Amino acid sequence: MMSRTQITLEPEMQRGARRRASELGISLAEYVRRVVARDLGTVQKPVSPAIVFDLGASDGSDIARNKGAMLAEAFASGRKKSRSR
């Protein structure tokens, strides 16, 4: 869990931090988190890109197996409704 924190930086420091974060391809917030973690000597857990692949895991759902039939049924019911208008 993270806590929201507000900080005040001199304009030149903020521009430099934003520029460096952009060079690294990360947000300013992530840049600040990394700098603080490095200063405190804490080790950040590396984030595995594999977590993205589990976002749609259905855990036994039949949606993936029957998606063709489900889509056909949805389109067919949509056609029936539009014809009755």
Shape: elongated
Tell me the β content. Answer: under 5%
**Would you list the SSEs in sequence order as H and E?**
HHH
Spans of at least 5 consecutive residues with low confidence: none
Mean pLDDT: 78
First-residue to last-residue Cα separation: 52 Å
Structural class comes to: mainly alpha
The largest β sheet comes out as: none
Count the domains: 1
Radius of gyration: 24 Å
Number of strands: 0
- Give the count of helical stretches: 3
**Relative helix content:** 55-70%
Descriptive notes:
The chain has 85 residues and is mainly alpha-helical. The protein has helices at residues 11-24, 28-40, 63-83. The chain has one domain (11-45, 59-83). Helix 1 crosses helix 2. The N and C termini lie far apart (52 Å).
Characteristic terms for this protein:
elongated, 0% strand, 3 helices, 85 residues, mainly alpha
Kindly summarize this structure in a few lines.
This protein is mainly α and 85 residues long. Helices cover 56% and strands 0% of the residues. The mean pLDDT is 78.
SSE diagram, text form:
Elements: H1 11-24, H2 28-40, H3 63-83
